[in-house]
Amino acid sequence: MIYFDNSATTKIDPQVLQTYNTVANDFWGNPSSLHGLGDHALQLLQSARQQIADLVGCAADEIYFTSGGTEGDNWVIKGTAMAKREFGKHIIVSSVEHAAVLNSAAQLEKLGWEVTYLPVDKQGFVNPDDVAKAMRPDTVLVSVMAVNNEIGAIQPITEIGEILKNYPTVHFHVDAVQSVGKNLWSQVLPERVDFATFSAHKFHGPRGTGFIYAKKGRALGTLMSGGGQETNHRSGTENLPAIAAMSKALRLAVTDEAKKAQHELALKQQLVDFLSALPDITIFSPVAANFAPHILCFAIAGVRGETTVHALEAKDIYLSTTSACSSRSGDESSTLKAMKVPEKLATSAVRISLDDANTQAEVDQFIKVFPEIYQRFERMNGRA
Of 132, 252, 277, 312, which is least surrounded by CB within 10 A? Predict the structure, then answer.
């Protein structure tokens, strides 16, 4: 089996799974309990928080645990709206955000907030000047993702941050879910970023857990009310085995990170070179400094993306139609739509997403079997 769908989810690392099992068996007390079992669990919880903070480069009390990227995005966007509604009801998001951001913004619109959706250029990039133009006296939040999950475009977070230095009270949120392990920290988490969202299953951690970075002193409303966990910011008994496993996964992800990213980039380069030489194939994710090393989105003209996915699945090669979260809908990619890619071509798009565990042999096998599938599609479309 060749797994090229790592942006959808990654396989949990055996060391991470071992951590999960050990904590589940040996630290099963509730961290909120006053007795010794609870105290041991609390110590481990805080140790995991500190390790994540050290790896991200922030203080431990700026890390809050969540159930993943979707909750994190919802929390920051809606929590900002709750906390800052007296100061303004205008937010700015890019038009290529994950559905967790776009749908949260749409919910706020129904509740009376105004939302500006930033356009992108033909390659999928936000223009920082458009951020500056969109700012208003009642703007309370700007949310722009770090790495686009469909095409891998690295948004100009540093440049946007420079603009927002002129608006020190406006929250700046970055969905950083696709950036971990790709040697992009300086590009996606400059000092001006106030909030960042992370999800463990994107870097070989367990599903159903994640965290946000929340800069100290920034107000954020509470979505999950209850027993007061996470210093009364996010109630609910902490999933300690998953949190401990996530901290282990993050440590492993950033170990030799530059080397891993270079390995992925080398594999991507070979795939891009191979695919771009074939007629009727469009590459949306070139090899470039402003594109992530692991994401390759391409389309075969006249062939729907799901058809390509299933044809490769028959060869035991697994990829997705752009965003796996919405792939079953059969709709065109929201990112490609924002890029004004014609709908017929956009619905043909598929995404390869690599990981450091992918091998040269796997790329060689893809290059070996793809021409057969490609030629079949060319004949079906009367081009061969």
Answer: 277
- Residue 325 pLDDT level (bands cut at 50, 70, 90): low
- Asked whether residue 328 carries a pLDDT value surpassing 70, the answer given is no
Q: What is the pTM of this model?
A: 0.95
How many angstroms separate the Cα of 226 from the Cα of each of 82, 119, 165, 187, 234? 17, 39, 35, 36, 8
Instruction: Report the b/e string of 137-157 with b at 16+ CB within 10 A.
Output: eebbbbbbbbbbbbbbbbbbb
Residue of 83, 224, 278, 325 marked active site? 325
- Classify the C-alpha dihedral 292-295-296-299 as positive or negative: negative
Alpha-carbon distance of 215 to 211, in angstroms, equals: 13
Specify the CATH number for 2-9+256-375; select among 3.40.1390.10, 3.30.450.40, 3.30.565.10, 3.90.1150.10.
3.90.1150.10
Cα 65 from Cα 75, distance rounded (Å): 11
- As a whole number, mean pLDDT of residues 292-319 equals 97
| Active site annotation includes 58 | no
Radius of gyration of the chain (CA): 21
Secondary structure (3-state) at 364: helix
Taking the domains of the chain in order of start, what are their residue ranges?
2-9+256-375, 14-254
A 10 A CB-CB count for 117 gives 16
- Quick one: pLDDT at residue 381? 82
For the record, the structure tokens of 209 come out as 């857990």
CA-nearest of 71, 100, 327 to 222 is 71
pLDDT for 182-199, tens place per residue? 999 999 899 999 999 999
Given pLDDT bands bounded at 50, 70 and 90, which one contains residue 384? low
Instruction: Phi first, then psi: give them for residue 127, nearest 5 degrees.
Output: -90, 120
Q: What fold does the segment set 14-254 form as a domain?
A: Aspartate Aminotransferase; domain 2 (3.40.640)
